[in-house]
Amino acid sequence: MARPREFDMDTAVDGAMQIFWSLGYAATNLPDLLHAMGLTRGSFYKAFGDKHSAYLAALDRYDRTCISAAVALLADTSKGSGAARLLQLFEGTGHGDKTLRRGCFVCNAMVEHGPSDAKVVARTTAMSARLEAAILEALHDVPGLAGSSERSKRRKAAIITRLYLGAQAMSKTGESDANWRDLLGELLNCEMS
Predict the structure, then answer these.
(1) pTM over 0.85
(2) How far is 91 from 85, CA to CA, in rounded Å?
(3) How far is CA 49 from CA 13, 14, 18, 35, 43, in A?
(4) Which of 3, 15, 34, 166 is least surrounded by Cβ atoms within 10 Å, i.e. has the fewest?
(5) CB distance 59 to 123 below 8 Å
(6) For 181-193, what is each residue's pLDDT tens digit?
């Protein structure tokens, strides 16, 4: 009979997500990963098999937590118009502990693995597509775009998604204090309140 797992999987994967997010995949060594996850070597190998599988689990956790939170914010009409929700999304860019300067886990994964790891590419592409779809839905609730065609809104959603991911990546430098109210107001052709 197999022994029951003696650790909480979400807690372990959260630890993996934090260290991979901070250091990147290549710079994360196994002892640091085990420490961050609170696991012994045996428990780690039994649960994940290898570092790459733990990394994929960490990306999936980021999707279920951070990306899902962004999508939920963009869909929450109680937070105001689509423009107001987009502004809240952007104003959260790079906030938190400025000493971490870790940017966005998705952006970091795209840069580090984009050219070489099909599984990471599939996950990061799916996450950015989910974000873009949520941005498009928010754009349907922007007064300044009421007369715009669906094609125009789709193009703006693509632009805004790339702007958001770029802003997240730039937050690694500590420079995240853009005037999103003015920038988004001009892009969306509306007054941001």
Answers:
(1) yes
(2) 10
(3) 13, 17, 19, 16, 9
(4) 3
(5) yes
(6) 888 988 898 877 6
